[in-house]
């Protein structure tokens, strides 16, 4: 049984105060790790590496979502061969937690670069090691690697840095 990793930040005083239960315990964060991917993509856009309007072709094996879980979302699921923009992928990844979009953006930003972003921000130990797909479809070198991890402390610090306009 995995211990919980929980953090709460009190922002009322103007100076963030963190409290938690096992907040430094590293766990698989599910879709929470998409925030780290989005932040690195936006950092690369800010640095001029590419724009929000860069077209991308959705390729195998990144297409993993077969349906949309939000009944009022009119956007179709991504299909192999679709050409979409980085902006569209970011929107899908964040607003409906689209795993196919996340896989495409992990490829675009690069796992090494996403992990370097986390280290630069003091989140040592948090890593994006896996995409949202079966291990047999992972890129060479990632088929046997341990799963993606973060802790509530790092996730809370990420949100605080956004609140402080430091990300």
What does this structure look like?
The protein has 167 residues and is of the alpha+beta class. The chain is 34% helix and 10% strand. The protein has five helices and four strands, in the order E-E-H-E-E-H-H-H-H. It has a two-stranded antiparallel sheet with strand order 1-2. Strand 1 and strand 2 form a beta hairpin. The longest helix is centred in the first third of the chain and has 13 residues. 29% of the residues are buried. The model has no long low-confidence stretch (mean pLDDT 94).
Count of individual beta strands? 4
Spatial extent as radius of gyration: 17 Å
**Stretches where pLDDT falls below 50 for ≥5 residues?**
none
Q: Averaging pLDDT over every residue, what do you get? A: 94
Instruction: Output the helix-strand order.
Output: EEHEEHHHH
The shape, in one word, is globular
**Count of runs of 4 or more consecutive helical residues:** 5
Major sheet: arrangement of strands: 1-2
Q: Which class best fits the helix and strand makeup?
A: alpha+beta
